[in-house]
Amino acid sequence: MSSIWKWIVVTAILCLVQEASCTYQCGKGITPKIYSECKMLPSLGASFAWTFNRSAYSMDFAFTEDLEDPSGWVAWGINPDGAQMVGTQALAAFSNTSGVYTMRTYNVTGPVKNNERLLVPGTVSVNYSNYSVVVVQTTVTIAGTVLLKSGQSTSLNLVWNRGPQVQTTTSALMSHSVSNNENLMSTLRFDVGTGESMGGGEIPNKRLKDIHGIINAISWGILLPIGLLAARYLRPFNFADPAWFYIHAFCQITGYAGGTAGWILGLRLQKLANPIKYYHRNLGIAVWALATLQILAATLLRPKPKTKGRPLWNVIHHTLGFLIVILGVVNIFEGIDLLGVENWKRVYITILICIGLVAVVLELINWFFWMQKKERRHKHSVLVGDT
């Protein structure tokens, strides 16, 4: 009998020394099951442990998060449609009327997000199984298994949140806080096969930010460069005069007007921002201020051709124009990074490459005609000298 007790004592000591062999801990979550990976999630102090089984094409998981209130709820789920709230197929844990923690499945729809309908239990399209909940004080761990569909990508959109209250009669989850950015950013897209994160988070005021980004990208990032190309590469050709000037003026004035509208919208978004993105804001103010100076100088301070001050004005005007375009493009990429839309970045890079290729072709054409013109002048000077 004494040998049995010795074995128990030794085992207990080994468990204390090497806790992972007896329990598994990821963040605040402690589970009897051991997982191969652990990840701290980017908001609400949540953590996620998982093991991906390639042969069964399934994932064992344990999600952990603190309750906001003892009578509240904690939920986690997968969204097949994207890293967003609407479309999430969720598992939620909460205390029932008997004080026992239970779990239900929920399908988050658009009317639920818009507070037009309560989030009540329902069937979900994600194949969850063997799910359970463990609560230690105020820390909730939701564990279970997800069976992925054949051919489904291992890149999953995880969505999680917590709220202060549950409607006891219907098990409806009452809305979470919308004033806390962490509640609005509690999504993550990552590959359960590699553990690589690919961003996430629902962006507050996303519609306004999308409009702001599109207007500024077209204005500062497309129209202004095209107007610059027209002035630089079409002006030397007699057949393009005065068309080059009208193209240049139209692109610059239209780009400035659109950029001003986008800038004003940016000031509005700044009041809603938390935290304020100072680098993006300050660079935007600088671009708009320089463009305003450029417009005023071009309309009010431009000397007449062949006057004494015109060469200096040309140098300042050209330098300022290039500076505005460069800073504008830099700030567009900064804004795209803030929005986290990689497809926008790819599209804009493609547009810039096209503009760049056109510039290279026009540059070569200008050099060709310049060399021809130089050669003709040289031949003319030789002929004049011979006579």
TrEMBL record:
Binds 2 heme b groups non-covalently. Residues 174-371 form the Cytochrome b561 domain. The chain crosses the membrane at residues 213-231, 243-265, 315-336, 348-370. Residues 1-22 form the signal peptide. The keyword Transport applies. One of its GO terms (cellular component) is membrane. SMART domains: B561. Heme b binds at residues 212, 248, 280, 317. Residues 44-163 form the DOMON domain. GO terms for molecular function: metal ion binding. It is found in: Membrane. Keywords: Electron transport, Iron, Membrane, Metal-binding, Signal, Transmembrane, Transmembrane helix, Transport. Its cofactor is heme b. This is Cytochrome b561 and DOMON domain-containing protein. It comes from Physcomitrium patens (Spreading-leaved earth moss). The gene is LOC112287341.
